[in-house]
Specification:
Layout (H helix, E strand, L loop, with lengths): L11 H24 L8 H29 L11 H29 L6 E3 L3 E3 L8 H35 L3 H4 L9
Antiparallel strand pairs: 1-2
Bound molecules: protoporphyrin IX containing FE.
Length: 186
């Protein structure tokens, strides 16, 4: 098992966090769109938002760990075959994904705590409210939350398509690397 990234490989911690976050992002997107359609009498009317908020707090923790881990264990070098366009666009896309994801998590927190209520995380612990600007806070954060959610889904799908293009057209190890494969092994 390779924990840290090397100059040619992603270690298993980065791989695990990458796929866990990807799964959580698509799951949370579906859950978020579904829960706002529920009627008051649905059994999931309260449960779905509680689940959405609890997972969101965990996702924030995982993303914070991810950023710290990126400093402790920097990602592998770009492949020599990458064009300048690929190098620059991948940096911009990865940076945008990080920023927009944090934007979603922070705006979600601001919507949930606008009324001054703490967020209960699976009933295990609470995250207290901080900013509680009644009225405008929940509305503004709500708009940012929804638009950023769509942006992250669209950008991550394009990013996934780029990874598939590397795998099937360029036939390089970009995608395999994100599954922890060793590029030096034939
Ligand atoms: C919500 C979904 C996703 C998010 C938020 C996301 C985010 C990211 C980020 C931030 C990185 C950069 C990692 C770093 O350098 O620290 C990355 C790398 C990568 N992602 Fe994703 N990703 C998502 C989905 C996918 C999907 C669906 C695929 C493939 C089908 C994929 C394939 C890859 C690959 C191959 C890399 C490594 C690129 C390289 O070696 O430079 N990702 N992803």
């Amino acid at each position: 098992m390779l924990l840290k990234n090397t100059s040619t490989r992603f270690g298993h911690i980065s791989v695990l966090i990458h796929w866990l976050v990807a799964l959580a992002v698509y799951g949370m997107f579906g859950l978020g769109l579904w829960m706002v359609t529920l009627s008051y009498y649905d059994t999931w009317y309260h449960r779905a938002p509680e689940l959405h908020k609890s997972i969101g707090i965990f996702l924030f923790i995982v993303m914070a760990v991810r950023v710290i881990w990126r400093f402790i264990s920097p990602p592998p070098k770009p492949l020599a075959s990458y064009s300048l366009f690929t190098r620059i666009s991948s940096i911009l896309v990865h940076l945008t994904l990080y920023i927009v994801l944090f934007g979603i998590l922070i705006s979600g927190y601001l919507i949930s705590t606008a009324d001054g209520e703490a967020i209960s995380v699976f009933g295990w612990f609470e995250i207290p409210a901080t900013l509680t600007e009644q009225g405008i806070q929940a509305d503004t954060a709500g708009v940012i939350h929804l638009y950023f959610a769509w942006i992250v889904v669209v950008i991550s799908l394009l990013h996934g398509l780029a990874a598939l293009k590397h795998h099937f057209i360029d036939r390089d190890i970009t995608l395999k690397r994100m599954f922890g494969c060793n590029p030096d092994k034939k």
